[in-house]
Design a protein that fits this description.
By secondary structure, the chain is of the alpha/beta class. Helix 11 packs across helix 17 (563-577), helix 19 (619-629) crosses helix 20 (640-662) and helix 21 (679-700) runs parallel beside helix 24.
Length: 955
């Protein structure tokens, strides 16, 4: 006997454990079946489940369970990302909080990396357990980690990453260069754009006067508030504005637009840079915007990405003024820039105050503008990020992007929704070199060693960069070094690069007899190893059966913000090393927002914890909510009420199963549709067939909301609200054959509904599969391994016409009663006017249902409308409901008139809003569609009320 209600807290862990113990998530291994695979976007090993994860993994699991039931050889590849900077930060913080009074530098690299591995093995990967709570049916026996397994001497993940780096280096697709990077002064490492958090903060623009050199002056126009020139004044300075005044110490020029008439005569002239006293040129460059500020821009190539490009075009040598901790440099770099002694060693913000004070004292500070500015912060360190020039390793992304662009254009990989292709092309066609080195200890260490450069005579070359030895192993690097230095120089690996020998008398330079090469201390960007995920997880660089079977994958489900950081890079790497695209489809899901359409964040207090929702309503309710709301290109507005509503949907299904149990509707397995005779049973089989087709097409087309919507409509409305009510007379009747047929069909339709719903709501459906027929899971297998319902169409037009007539009659009579204010307990006489024999037969065949569900006293047939009756045409049937003795007709008219007037007002107001081009262009698409839907609903309602109002005429 089924319990009164489904208890997710008890059932979900029990069912998941049973699935795992029985190997339900493993591929079938059927080599004759079509392979279908998805790789999970690996969450950070430090991560916890958030709403984005809940949506992303729900949709993946829907696809996986759907294809598994369709008989494919399915693999959902799980794993986690080593998350270099995040994991290192967690362990360092843990060490600080433990009271050990030791830092990673005190501990040393090898010991610290061991400590991180220990943390990972003991505490990392909590998100895996959280994904299991969501119902994710990944093959956990194949769980991967982007750093591999440190206890595995044949660590294929490590080998894969090393091989890729070395091969790309040999092809000159990886190289070392000094360029600007996002530098985190706290962690002292380069970080990716995705790890930079642009925040709007209170700030300033300091408007600085740079004196013109060589006595140059010019006439500068003075404008009024409307931008009209009212006078001119002679100036011996040019004004620039900056939010980072300290960077002026490294300025190499001032840029003006080549067509800006104000400064045309100054191009080619110089300014005397205050504080440092250097002469820097005024150059023409279209980067300068004449309509922004003064139209003149200070150029600091070493500390601004845009300025770097301007400086490169102008042939300027960048001047670095900051060190790794964002203090003003000292020594040779400071000497070159001309930085005074009192500025050297200052923190950047102290230097800022000092620079501003110096400009103020020299009367060169024109104004300070207070305003909100966009400032880059490290998302982990929460310190301001600096564009900083350092030597880093780069991938030639421009070259590697070409085949990846072509693959999408040729349709080898398609984006869903298609509009994301434009984003992909835009990023890929404007791609910059990819900085892949990080100044961390946790991660894949770069397989490169450095040694002192020598000339062709074996003498040190002080002007050359250190020689690079990129190799699969230290032994191979040593062999390369021996080949470079020759047999007369002894080579070894050590912690410091250098060498010993004797001074050559002719050159006064060192001729080496012994050289020490040093391994690069940096590690690779986390995204580098993630870019190999679709094939490294299947055993590459080895040729494995899994690689042959499950690569390329079928679908990637991910968010739009990592199309560039991950999707594009997987495309590049797979095409380079596997010769084909890594996935056929890329489904880009939308964002999960709060119910007001705002981004969720802890600071706003509107963040929702998916695990709390699972605790309160069950995983099925959250999953089905995500599915119902996952429309293509439409952000999800999530509320607890929506999740609660879908918990109620699960309850409705559970109660339907209890009804079936109480009425002995068992689990018949397959049935022969041709032997079903009752119109209501043939009707529900046709409705089931249509639902199966709609759900299948919805999932196939990644229209998850349409699939879930079809399920909701069929199970809640068609099955529970109508079919179970319509069959009550048959189940209670004396016709044993009809009763037996109805029990069989009801049980069959319920089981097929469980199969269709299973990808979205796996727990309650699996529980009902077993509980409706004890021992069925053991005898026939779990629900997740049952065959997907047939999508072959089954129709019966006569049955559909008859049952839909009954449903429409009940629906319209209920609506009419409600519109007229008929008390709920009142039973009214119904007269069908000039109905005809067919309608009369229908009415009599379904008399019990009509009277019970429409609250009717009796049903009669006449040629004329009875007095005191309100009429309505339902289908082609004139129906007269006698209400004069029950309803206050005048009050009913007033109420209907009032509601009609309000509807007219609402429709007019909303149509006016939608006719406003500004509103339609600026509002989110889902809001525009929501307003259009409201108008459609209001107009439908208005027509119904008008019909009811017309029916009152003459009463």
């Amino acid at each position: 006997m089924l319990d009164q209600r489904f208890d997710p807290a008890e059932a979900e862990p029990r069912l998941y454990k049973a699935w795992e113990e029985n190997g339900c998530f493993k591929p079938s291994g059927d080599t004759s079946a079509q392979a279908y695979s998805i790789v999970i976007p690996p969450p950070n090993v430090t991560g916890v489940l958030h709403m984005g994860h809940a949506l992303n993994n729900t949709l993946q699991d829907v696809l996986i369970r759907f294809e598994r039931m369709r008989g494919k050889n399915v693999l959902w590849q799980p794993g986690t990302d080593h998350a270099g900077i995040a994991t290192q930060m967690v362990v360092e913080r843990q060490m600080a909080e433990s009271g050990e009074n030791i830092t990673r530098r005190d501990m040393g690299r090898e010991a610290f990396v061991d400590r991180v591995w220990e943390w990972k093995e003991e505490s990392g990967g909590a998100i895996v357990g959280q994904l299991k709570r969501l119902g994710a049916s990944c093959d956990w026996s194949k769980e991967a980690f982007t750093m591999g397994d440190r206890n595995d001497p044949d660590n294929n993940m490590m080998r894969a990453v090393t091989k890729v780096f070395v091969e790309l280096y040999k092809k000159r697709l990886i190289y070392r260069d000094k360029r600007l990077v996002n530098w985190d002064p706290h962690f002292q490492t380069a970080i990716s754009d995705l790890e930079v958090d642009q925040r709007e903060v209170p700030g300033h623009y300091w408007h600085l006067r740079y004196p013109l050199a060589d006595g140059v002056t010019y006439m500068h126009p003075i404008e009024d508030e409307d931008g009209n020139t009212v006078e001119t004044e002679m100036r011996d300075y040019i004004v620039v504005a900056t939010s980072r005044p300290e960077t002026m110490l490294g300025d190499t020029g001032v840029a003006v637009h080549p067509e800006d008439p104000r400064y045309a005569g100054l191009i080619g002239k110089f300014v005397e840079l205050p504080i440092v006293g250097r002469r820097i040129p005024i150059i023409a460059d279209e980067y300068a915007d004449p309509d922004k500020g003064s139209g003149a821009v200070k150029i600091t190539p070493a500390h601004d990405f845009n300025d770097f490009e301007v400086g490169k075009r102008a042939g300027h040598t960048p001047l670095n003024i900051l060190n790794a901790t964002a203090h003003i440099v000292d020594g040779e770099e400071a000497d070159t820039a001309g930085i005074p002694a009192e500025y050297r060693g200052l923190d950047r913000f102290d230097a800022r105050r000092k620079v501003v004070s110096a400009f103020e004292e020299a009367e060169l500070l024109q104004e300070i503008e207070n305003l909100k500015i966009e400032q880059p912060f490290g998302d982990r360190s929460n310190v301001v990020i600096e564009p900083w020039m350092t030597d880093q390793w780069y991938v030639d992304a421009k070259t590697m992007a070409k085949p990846a662009i072509a693959a999408v254009k040729e349709g080898k990989t398609k984006f869903v929704p298609e509009n994301w292709e434009k984003t992909y092309y835009n990023w890929m066609e404007n791609i910059q070199p990819w900085c892949v080195s990080r100044q961390l200890w946790w991660g894949h260490r770069i397989p490169a060693w450095f040694g002192p450069a020598i000339d062709s005579n074996g003498i040190e070359d002080r002007d050359a960069k250190p020689e690079e030895f990129v190799a699969l192993s230290e032994e191979e690097a040593l062999a390369q070094a021996v080949g470079y230095y020759g047999p007369d120089i002894q080579v070894q690996v050590g912690p410091l690069m250098g060498g010993t020998g004797f001074v050559d008398e002719e050159t006064n330079l060192l001729r080496y007899s012994e050289v020490t090469i040093k391994r690069d201390p940096d590690v690779l960007d986390t995204w580098f190893s993630s870019a190999l995920w679709p094939f490294s997880t299947q055993g590459w660089p080895d040729k494995t059966a899994d690689l042959d079977t499950f690569f390329p994958t079928a679908t990637l489900v991910t968010a739009f913000d990592i199309i560039f950081f991950w999707v594009a890079r997987m495309m590049m790497m797979s095409l380079e090393f596997m010769g084909e695209v890594p996935f056929k489809d890329v489904y880009i899901h939308a964002l999960v927002l709060d119910e007001k359409g705002q981004k969720m964040s802890k600071s706003k207090g509107n963040a929702m914890d998916p695990l709390e929702l699972v605790d309160e309503y069950g995983a099925d309710a959250l999953r089905f909510t995500m599915g119902r709301m996952a429309g293509q290109g439409r952000n999800i507005r999530l509320s607890k009420q929506a999740v609660e509503g879908n918990r109620n949907f699960a309850t409705k299904l559970w109660n339907a199963a209890r009804f079936a149990e109480m009425n002995e509707c068992g689990a018949p397995g397959e049935i022969d549709y041709t032997r079903v005779e009752s119109p209501v049973n043939r009707w529900i089989l046709a409705e089931l067939s249509q639902c199966a087709a709609e759900v299948s097409k919805g999932i196939e087309d990644y229209k998850f909301n349409e699939a879930a919507g079809a399920l909701y409509k069929f199970i809640w409305n068609t099955l529970c609200d109508w079919y179970l009510e319509l069959i009550k007379p048959l189940l209670a009747g004396m016709d044993d054959a009809a009763k037996q047929e109805t029990r069989m069909v009801c049980g069959y339709v319920l089981d097929e509904s469980l199969k269709l719903l299973h990808p979205f709501m796996p727990f309650v459906t699996e529980e009902l599969w077993e509980r409706r027929a004890e021992g069925r899971a053991e005898a026939k297998g779990f629900l997740m391994h049952q065959s997907w319902p047939s999508t072959e169409p089954f129709t019966d037009e006569a049955a559909a016409e008859e049952i839909n007539w009954v449903i429409d009659m009940i629906t319209e009579l209920r609506s009419l009663r409600n519109d007229l204010g008929v008390p709920a307990g009142s039973k009214l006489p119904l007269t069908l006017v000039n109905a005809g024999a067919e309608i009369e037969n229908r009415a009599m065949s379904h008399e019990d249902v009509l009277k019970r569900l429409a609250r009717l006293e009796d049903i009669s047939m006449t040629d004329t409308t009875p007095e005191g009756a309100v009429t309505a045409v339902i289908g082609e049937t004139m129906s007269a409901l006698s209400v004069a003795d029950i309803v206050d007709i005048d009050e009913a008219r007033k109420r209907l008139d009032k509601e009609l007037a309000q509807l007219d007002k609402d429709i007019k107001s909303t149509e006016g809003k939608l006719s406003n081009e500004k509103f339609v262009s600026r509002a989110p698409p889902e809001i525009v569609e929501e307003n259009r839907e409201r108008i459609r609903d209001w107009k439908t309602r208005r027509e119904k009320l008008k019909a009811a109002r017309k029916g009152l005429e003459g009463l």
